[in-house]
Design brief:
It is a single chain. By secondary structure, the chain is α+β, with helices and mostly antiparallel strands. The chain has one domain. About 30% of the residues lie in helices and about 30% in strands. It contains five helices and eight strands. A six-stranded mixed sheet has the order 3-4-5-6-7-8, covered by helices on one side. The radius of gyration is 17 Å and the shape is elongated. The chain starts with a strand and ends with a strand. About 30% of the residues are buried. The model has no long low-confidence stretch (mean pLDDT about 90).
Length: about 170
C-alpha cells in the first residue's frame, strides 16, 4: 500500500507496514536532515501529513521558536538546557570560542545561537497525541553526536519540551 501527499509525494510502506520519507532541507548555511516515519501507515492520517508538511515548510520559524524555548530555560539551573551549557563550557574550555558564531559575553546566549540544527524527525503516527510529533536535534559540535539538545514539538508546531539526549 501507499499514501499519496502533495508535499511528500508517494509514501510507500515497507513489508512491515511502516512508512519512511527523508530529505535534506537547506536552512541558511546549514543542511538539515528531515525524516518522516511511522511504524504503521494505518496510523497516519492526512491531517498528520499536512501538519508535518507545515512544520517542514516553516523550518526557519520552527528553528527560531526552538531557540527561544531553549533561552527561556536558561534561568532555571535545573533545566537540561542549563546543564548542557555548563557541560559544553567544562568539556570544551577555551576551545568553546572556536565553535561560537558570535561572542556577546553571555555564554548561554552565544552557545544557543551557535547550535547547529542537525536533524528533524517527524513521528507521523503521534499526530494529536501526548508524545512529541517532531524532534529537532541540535549540537554545538556537529561531530559530537552524543552531546545534543532535543526540542520536541507538538503536531501544531508548538514546543512540547526541551531535553538532552542523555
Amino acid at each position: 500500500m501507499a499514501i499519496e501527499h502533495d508535499f511528500f509525494g508517494l509514501l510507500e510502506s515497507g513489508p512491515d507496514g511502516s512508512i519512511f520519507w527523508s530529505e535534506n532541507v537547506e536552512l541558511g548555511d546549514q543542511t538539515v536532515s528531515v525524516d518522516l516515519t511511522a511504524p504503521d501507515q494505518e496510523d497516519v492520517s492526512k491531517e498528520a501529513l499536512d501538519a508535518a508538511a507545515s512544520i517542514v515548510a516553516s523550518l526557519e520559524e520552527v528553528d527560531r521558536r526552538s531557540r527561544e524555548a531553549m533561552l527561556a530555560e536558561v534561568d532555571n539551573r535545573a533545566s537540561e538546557v542549563t546543564e548542557y551549557i555548563i557541560m559544553q563550557q567544562e568539556t570544551l574550555g577555551d576551545a568553546l570560542e572556536e565553535l561560537l558564531v558570535d561572542i556577546s559575553g553571555d555564554a548561554a546566549v552565544d552557545i544557543i545561537r551557535s547550535l547547529n540544527l542537525m536533524s528533524m524527525t517527524i513521528l507521523a503516527d503521534e499526530h494529536g497525541g501526548a508524545d512529541p510529533f517532531a524532534v529537532l536535534e541540535y549540537a554545538l559540535d556537529p561531530d559530537a553526536t552524543d552531546d545534543v539538545l532535543l526540542v520536541n514539538l507538538r503536531s501544531d508546531g508548538g514546543i512540547h519540551s526541551v531535553t538532552s539526549a542523555e
